[in-house]
Design a protein that fits this description.
alpha/beta; Rossmann fold; Alpha-Beta Plaits; 3 domains; four-stranded parallel beta sheet; 16 helices; 45% helix; elongated
């Protein structure tokens, strides 16, 4: 009897140990993120004269440029190579919380319409994915609904394309109600065409009079629910836009210009925002760490006040659904008096990234706005490279993290803004006007000040809004 009890006790202990081990492994697996396998694609698309070829990603970018320009000739823009594009996908996957355990780059002469990369290559990927025990396959390309289903049928794994991955990152980082609504709208619009083929077989027969025969399919029911939800979310976003428009109207009732930061994701916009405003918004090396717009006041050297707006980062082939969904947020870019285009000076892909930012600005119809190009992260350059840098009429070099060049940037913003222009005036103000004198001290540059017979004679450089308030004390023909 004791032997049986002892055996049972040992078995219980073994089961508990195995269970605890399984729980620990599950916890470790969860903590380390989903295991992802990356699939890149390099398709050489020859032009009619046969002299030039483009990668699949570059071709997509050219197509986007063509659609943005409404039929106009696309710009001669630099191209991302397939390897560089796959590197970016790896960064996106990490930002989404995945652990990359393998990758493959497929080179083809043309797309496979059914599976994008061909059934043979998929079989090879299936073996590699099984040996690496992956949870999902990430494609560095947009997949049609039928392609995604065909690939999942062969791989027996979850398959996610580039757009869905970006949407997932946005969903993880959206903190405000506005940001969450905009991400949900983009996800619903992405999901809608992908319902096809999922649920048609679930058509039911009714059980009562007037309900016999095929009922509403699960597919139709799901589609109807999604349409209803899309309408509801759009109404809520419209309310957000209305409130934002009212706030903007109140801001515009006083002459305070808005300066918008734009740039490729992870160019250092939030770090620069913090350096200029002394704010403490999240600055992270992860892609799309900033989704929710932040606006703070900044005082320029002329003592003018401006509003600085931090915006979501752009990316190559930014999904159109995201641009549409985030239009309420990106309106700050459209209405800005000046755009600061922030670039990573140390990135080997700066030219390509800048070209992608241009495409998004065109889609927002903001490409003709006054602009300053801010080359950030110069602290990461070699000393000789830093010494060779020269600012010009359109470009300022800074290191936001070290505060280098921020004063110069503020001076250049001051010079570029046309709202509430600054002028130099000579003033004779009675000393009893204490409030006016205090206002001038706070909102203008004072070059000279003398006290004579109860009057303060001064020369000041002040914005037009300030000059209007002291017009009665302006000395005529002053310079």
């Amino acid at each position: 009897m004791r032997s049986a009890d002892s055996t049972r006790s040992r078995n219980d202990a073994v089961r508990r140990a195995l269970k605890e081990k399984g729980v620990a492994e599950t916890r470790d697996r969860r903590d380390s993120g989903e295991r992802a396998f990356l699939v890149g694609l390099d398709v050489r698309v020859r032009s009619r004269n046969g002299k030039r070829s483009l990668t699949a990603g570059a071709q997509s970018a050219r197509d986007a440029a063509t659609s943005v320009a409404a039929g106009a000739k696309p710009p001669d823009m630099p191209d991302f190579s397939a390897e560089e594009s796959l590197d970016e996908l790896r960064t996106l996957a990490t930002s989404a919380g995945a652990t990359v355990v393998g990758e493959v780059l497929q080179r083809r002469d043309r797309f496979d319409p059914a599976t994008l990369i061909g059934a043979g290559k998929l079989e090879e990927i299936a073996g590699a994915a099984a040996s690496a025990d992956v949870d999902l396959i990430l494609f560095d390309h947009d997949l049609s609904p039928s392609q995604q289903r065909n690939i999942e049928r062969i791989l027996h794994k979850r398959v996610i394309d580039r757009t869905q991955l970006i949407l997932d990152i946005f969903a993880r980082h959206a903190k405000t109600r506005e940001g969450q609504l905009q991400v949900e709208l983009a996800q619903l619009e992405y999901m809608l065409p992908r319902l096809a083929g999922r649920g048609v077989e679930m058509s039911q027969l009714g059980g009562g009079i007037g309900t016999r025969g095929p009922g509403e399919t699960q597919l139709e029911s799901d589609r109807r629910k999604i349409y209803r939800r899309i309408r509801h979310v759009k109404e809520q976003i419209e309310n957000v836009r209305r409130i934002r428009a009212q706030q903007r109207q109140r801001r515009e009732s006083v002459p305070v210009a808005t300066v918008a930061l734009v740039g490729y994701t992870n160019a250092g916009k939030s770090t620069l925002f913090n350096a200029m405003t002394k704010a403490e918004v999240l600055a992270s090396s992860k892609m799309f760490a900033t989704l929710d717009p932040t606006i703070r006041g900044v005082e320029l050297p002329s003592r003018r006040k401006v509003l600085l707006s931090d915006t979501v980062g752009f990316i190559r082939n930014l999904p159109h659904t995201l641009v549409s969904a985030f239009r309420a947020t990106l309106e700050e870019v459209q209405r800005a008096a000046l755009i600061l285009h922030v670039s990573d000076a140390g990135s080997p892909l700066t030219a390509e990234q800048d070209a992608q930012v241009e495409l998004v600005l065109k889609e927002l119809e903001a490409e003709k706005k006054p602009r300053l190009h801010v080359m950030n992260k110069i602290d990461l350059l070699e000393p000789k490279q830093r010494e060779a840098l020269r600012d010009d009429a359109q470009t300022v070099h800074v290191s936001a993290v070290r505060g280098v060049g921020i004063a110069t940037l503020l001076e250049r913003i001051d010079q570029a803004l046309e709202e509430d222009p600054v002028s130099r005036v000579r003033l004779n103000i009675p000393q009893k006007e204490g409030k006016i004198l205090a206002m001038l001290a706070a909102r203008s540059r004072i070059y000279s000040r003398q006290y004579k017979d109860g009057v303060v004679e001064m020369v000041a450089e002040a914005p037009e809004s300030v000059v209007r308030r002291v017009r009665e004390w302006v000395v005529k023909n002053s310079s």
